[in-house]
Amino acid sequence: MSKSSLALSNLRAFVILLVVAFHSVLAYLGSQPASPAPFDSPPYHWRAIPILDSERWFGFDLFCASQYVYLMHLMFFLSGMFVWSSLRRKGAKAFLSNRFLRLGVPFLIGVFLLMPVAHYPVYRVTAVDPSWSAFWAHWKALPFWATGQLWFLWHLLLLNIIAAVLFRVAPGFGELLGRLSKGAGDQPGRYFAALVGMSALVYMPLASLFRPWQWIQYGPFALQPSFTLHYMVYFFAGLGIGAYGIDRGLLGSGGMLTRHWQIWAAGASGAFLLWIVPTTVITQGWDTALPGLETLANFGLVLSCGAISFALAAVFIRFAMRRVQAFDSLAENAYGIYLVHYVFVIWLQYMMLSFALPAIMKGAIVLAGTLALSWISTAAMCRLRMAARVLGRERVLVRAR
Fold it and tell me: What is the crossing angle of helices 334-352 and 3-24, to 10°?
């Protein structure tokens, strides 16, 4: 494994840790309502934050805001990196067959099996009749099918389908994106400016119509209308970086991005402030006297999304180019952890409601418990060949035998 690939593997492990941490502390945000609304009461606040605990800490609000602004974009970016090389190696038909197995099947199983189990505690918090049969009746009466974190799978599958179609009708498309990213290793600032410009072009018009936390759902298919095209930009940016070669472009171990990691880290902090300050003013209803504040906040989101993603990549390529056994295992099990962790998060948050503990302690317990249970569950599932194949662990299983 190359140095850049090893650093990206460690970054992947860190990203899944952030995802689990983000969901683990949502119950303890200081900005949320004092008590939960009934389960079947619109606008169904629990879809975003399933459990509300009476213990709160505003530090979790700042942490979640800092992750919300870039984390899923970074996941789409990382997901796109090896798509074109996989298409060249397998061909479009075999590639899509693999994608449907690895993304489509878990999405269906997760949505129709795991999500009812995960959300049963949410119903019990306000239920008059807490029985499973009563919950199931309420669940089926909802005008949508809650998907939790699994929305990412169908969205990623759709982007993979688009990439496969482009591979068939325009086989040079990936190489074109690769050539466009060729100079990113020596001039990451210019590449960053292009990425931010394209992001602003697709995000800001939609952001004038939809809030960044607003969702639209059709059956089991949930999407964020303001972010949909923005995610596509990051996915195809990752595809271009991967098509050119991750070891010799933007993410090369000797590139300018890595050499100037301190500048990118400082820039990420400044860009986040450019988003969080006007966003806070807007959410407090103080923006009427300050015209243009929403435009500033929208541009701040675009800027901070790219800056934080670049800063994290720079730091990991600079400092995390060696094997750490725990991170190796976490990276190998990352996909399985992503699939199942929501069940453990919600049930543990529900169980913690009856304990008189500070919010920080509750969040830490939920995080540790969720990570351990998800990790163990994924390792156990991968002992089955089909599950190992779906989760991308088949070769690991073969080596173990």
Answer: 20
Q: Could you identify the residue written with the tokens 């700042």?
A: 62
**Residue type (1 letter), 86:** S
- Distance (Å, whole) CA 117 – CA 143: 18
Say what the pTM is. 0.94
User: Would you list the domain boundaries of the chain?
Assistant: 9-257+318-400
Q: Where are the beta strands (DSSP E) in 161-263?
A: 216-218, 221-223
Give the integer Cα–Cα distance in Å for 145 and 10. 34
DSSP code at position 216: E
**In this structure, what token pair is assigned to residue 106?**
């878990």
Q: What does the alpha-carbon distance between residue 80 and residue 115 come to, in Å, rounded to a whole number?
A: 26
Q: How many CB atoms lie within 10 A of CB 89?
A: 10
| Tens digits of residue pLDDT in 325-341 | 888 899 999 999 999 99
Tokens read off for 400: 């173990």
pLDDT tens profile 57-109: 999 999 999 999 999 999 999 999 999 999 999 999 999 999 999 999 999 99
